[in-house]
What does this fold into?
Amino acid sequence: MQLSERVQHIAASQSLAMAARAKQMKADGIDVISMSLGEPDMDTPEHVRRAAQEAIDNHWSHYGPVPGIPSLREAIAAHHNKSLQQSNNTTLQQSNNTTIAFTGDDVLVSVGAKMAIFNAIQTLVNPGDEVVIPMPAWVSYTEMVKLSEGRVVPVETSYDNDYCLTPDQLRAALTPRTRMIILCSPNNPTGSVYSYDQLSALVNVLCDYPNVAILSDEIYNALVYNNTSIQQYNNPSLQQYNNTSLQQYNNTSFASFPELADRLIIINGVSKAYAMTGYRIGWLLSKNKDFIAACTRLQGQQLTCATMVAQKAAEAALTGSQDCVAQMRRVFDERRQLICRLAAQIPGFKFREPQGAFYLFPDVSAIGTGDEVAELLLNEAHVAVVSGSAFGCPSCIRLSYAISTSEITEAMKRIRQVLASRVGV
Ligand code: PLP
It folds into this structure.
């Protein structure tokens, strides 16, 4: 069979490939610790599981409306409005007090945030259109843009700026052909979180380019570790950052900027916040009715609707008690502090303290390339990590700390032993 040109140029996901190798080594009897996958290790909350079971018993087993069950769409809009309101109230720097208010009509529910992003890109990007993506970036954006025959314009961000895009970099990357910018905060793979002021500076630039759509991937927005970064690690490179990180980090969103309302797309879902990766429910929000209608047409031809039982479970997650989210955030924060403390003792690791999500992204160029170090750690330390080359940053590696504290402690001990012999410590 002759494969289409389209699929022949699509790269396989390196994080999935690394996870598969770790799994195979485990099956071969090797004690491998996997820090390669981006999913919470916790169980889905009980009330959510119960809602899924009830949905089966109540026969949510038929086709549903293409954009999602109306009560779920309402719940998503209400959830976003509420979290925006909360972050608005606590964001010290914020000068205005208005946010974009969403209704259920502004929501399109898809099979995971991944599909929502794919839909948005397919709906907006024509062949040859440019899409600006700050690097490092999540693995799939680039491949999805390629599937639309768009042109990725990667913008390299710097360690010194905590891998955040600056207004000058953004302005330099925009051209009359720019159709979209994709921003992810909290960020996978870096763990960076844009502050309100940083977003505001980008918005000022975007106001000069009214034809550019903003795709804001906020899938990790429930996992922001406000104000906890007050300890100094044993690593001089962290000193300066720790001083600046005393300021309040809030869950800022592009939806805090009503001037973008007509061209903003917010991406989110239940995968990361509620440990529901396998339920495959994500969504996009947009005030642009033409865009939502076009995306809905596209989805109607692709999948009809997301799984009904999973939609009911997602509704229960959003409308039920949010204590489970706070609990998971606490657990991840403890792990984050542990991994930072241990990583600071590893020779050759230079890293920023992550402010959100559940990844550490050390620069390992003092030891070798990200590919070399990932290979070394898998073969000699039996720890699976993902090379930064998967995210457009070949000097780094990504470690997921969505594993237990005992596994983190053991993995970091092994990494330290292997790398110490490399850099002569
Ligand atoms: N966006 C980012 C930045 C991610 O890391 C992921 C998953 O790893 C997704 C989107 C997709 O999430 P979902 O499980 O909802 O498809």
Remarks:
- The first helix runs from residue 5 to 8.
- The domain at 49-320 is CATH 3.40.640.10 (Aspartate Aminotransferase; domain 2).
- The chain is about 40% helix and 10% strand.
- The chain has two domains: 5-43+324-420, 49-320.
